[in-house]
């Protein structure tokens, strides 16, 4: 933390302390100074303020019990500021924080949920996917946690994978899908624009894109496509280390297949240019600590069921690891 930040924090704390003291001491002084009669004050029935002949303004002090309640309120506020945070940077003798309170309540609720989740503990996600009740529970957890990025139907968006197809950049086996959910993933595509242009000139990235588009077209003939043939040379010199000679990727690295016509960040020339030139950094957060082992398994079961439906419709293998 910088000296400026430390000074600002200390100054802000002092400012809060001063405000609190002014309020507490000011209330006590106001109460004390007005709780007794001063010499020269008119008597309770001597204000001489009379209206309509019989309406008289009196100057009677508040009753003792009312005054004592105010004093008790002030004492309570002092005790509160000693026990709880609120007096500047002083954390209070209880060390209470809203974050800590939330964690305690969350832990208590999680214990209650363990009873519901106990039948599903430790089971493989493909086995859970066969249980309709487990899938329904997993869908509810998915909607509350995962739909923000992947959409309520799991079809993803630009930069967020579609979970209903049979394409898995990190592997589509049950344990690999579960690992992606529980441990998270870091997908990094390095920026290659400068390197490629140093090897193949200003059009190098365009050449590579032309070649990439042929990978999903087995009938393509590079002999009649100058740009694609030039792109293959560049691809073989730079890209094969991650994506392989055939461009089908490497699930150990999270390197996607370039031969399936699926582009996570879009298939336009502009999107592909940006991906190759500037690189990409995709992050799938780890959810095991947030949801626990059983709930992540239930989410995995729901996700697995989505891809299996797609596999049944297309007739493709259920555990594709393209």
From TrEMBL:
Cellular component terms per the entry's GO annotation: plasma membrane
Cofactor: heme c
Gene3D superfamilies xref list: 6.10.280.130, Cytochrome c-like domain
Keyword Mitochondrion: no
Transmembrane region(s): 12-32, 65-84
A molecular-function term among this protein's GO annotations: metal ion binding
Cofactor comment: Binds 2 heme C groups per subunit.
A single GO BP: proton transmembrane transport
Binding site residues for heme c 2: 189, 239, 242-243
Keyword terms of this UniProt record: Cell inner membrane, Cell membrane, Electron transport, Heme, Hydrogen ion transport, Ion transport, Iron, Membrane, Metal-binding, Oxidoreductase, Repeat, Respiratory chain, Transmembrane, Transmembrane helix, Transport
Main location: membrane
Annotated function: C-type cytochrome. Part of the cbb3-type cytochrome c oxidase complex.
Family: Belongs to the CcoP / FixP family.
Self-association and partners: Component of the cbb3-type cytochrome c oxidase.
Protein name, as recorded: Cbb3-type cytochrome c oxidase subunit
Taxonomy of the source species: Bacteria, Pseudomonadati, Pseudomonadota, Gammaproteobacteria, Lysobacterales
């Amino acid at each position: 933390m910088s000296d400026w930040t430390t000074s600002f924090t200390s100054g802000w704390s002092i400012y809060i302390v001063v405000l609190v003291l002014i309020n507490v001491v000011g209330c006590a002084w106001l109460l004390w100074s007005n709780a007794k009669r001063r010499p020269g004050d008119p008597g309770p029935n001597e204000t001489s303020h009379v209206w309509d002949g019989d309406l008289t303004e009196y100057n009677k002090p508040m009753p003792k019990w009312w005054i004592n309640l105010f004093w008790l309120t002030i004492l309570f506020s002092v005790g509160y500021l000693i026990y709880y945070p609120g007096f500047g940077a002083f954390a209070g003798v209880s060390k209470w924080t809203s974050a800590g309170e939330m964690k305690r309540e969350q832990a208590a609720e999680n214990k209650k949920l363990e009873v519901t989740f106990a039948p599903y503990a430790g089971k493989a996600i493909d086995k859970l996917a066969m249980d309709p009740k487990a899938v329904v529970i997993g869908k509810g957890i998915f909607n509350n946690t995962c739909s923000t990025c992947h959409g309520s139907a799991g079809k993803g968006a630009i930069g967020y994978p579609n979970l209903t197809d049979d394409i898995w950049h990190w592997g589509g086996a049950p344990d690999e899908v579960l690992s992606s959910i529980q441990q998270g993933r870091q997908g990094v595509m390095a920026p290659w624009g400068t390197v490629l242009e140093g090897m193949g000139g200003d059009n190098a990235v365009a050449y590579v894109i032309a070649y990439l588009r042929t990978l999903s077209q087995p009938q393509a003939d590079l002999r009649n496509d100058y740009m694609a043939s030039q792109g293959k040379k560049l691809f073989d010199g730079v890209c094969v280390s991650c994506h392989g000679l055939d461009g089908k990727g490497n699930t150990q690295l999270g390197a996607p297949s370039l031969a399936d016509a699926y582009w996570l960040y879009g298939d336009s020339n502009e999107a592909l240019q940006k991906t190759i030139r500037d690189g990409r950094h995709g992050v799938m957060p780890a959810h095991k600590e947030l949801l626990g082992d059983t709930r992540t398994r239930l989410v995995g079961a729901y996700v697995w069921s989505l891809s299996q439906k797609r596999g049944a419709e297309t007739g493709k293998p259920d555990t594709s690891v393209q």
